[in-house]
């Protein structure tokens, strides 16, 4: 029988009321592990070794574990891709679910050759619909689509993103982009600050508390 260890205080479990096929469920598990690791300031390896995690539908699938460990191991590079691809929205201002879903999807797109990029994007959009806000699926689809176009064009998306991050944030220079922004509370995405309405030519990223009441209703 699958263990359901006690979670650290403040960490919520993604909805147990959504049922997926085996591969989709494995991606959902990877998302949950990354979310719990980030919420408790640990690596996925530490979460798995400590046993203080839970899954909405277990036991842990080997593919889900592969995605979670792999994405966590490449977190800096994947975050650079997200940050440089997302227009007008920094990584820190994205809801935690969306941020970690993008990490899982990008790792799969870059490192899992046996899965077509289009399949990864479609699966990620479905997870965004299940776990994110009303705007999450469109945002995730758009960002992953831009990365996919760069991959298809033969670009080294990791190297390009890291170089762009270094250009934007030279060593020893304080980043003023999110001045005054308070980090989200561990395990919650209800209190992410909102900004003014975007202009029509901006990316419409999901705001932190858009649909939060609906999302929280399924987080038990």
UniProtKB/TrEMBL annotation:
Q: Which Pfam families match?
A: NusB
UniProt keyword list: RNA-binding, Transcription, Transcription antitermination, Transcription regulation
GO terms for cellular component: cytosol
Which region is the signal sequence? none
**What molecular function does GO assign, one term?**
RNA binding
**Boundaries of each NusB/RsmB/TIM44 domain copy?**
24-148
Region of interest called Disordered, as start-end residue ranges on this chain: 164-220
Q: Where is the composition biased (Acidic residues)?
A: 199-212
- Mention one GO biological process in which this protein takes part, according to its record: transcription antitermination
Which family would the database say this protein is a member of? Belongs to the NusB family.
HAMAP family attached to this UniProt entry? NusB
How is this protein named in the record? Transcription antitermination protein NusB
> What is the species of this protein?
Olsenella porci
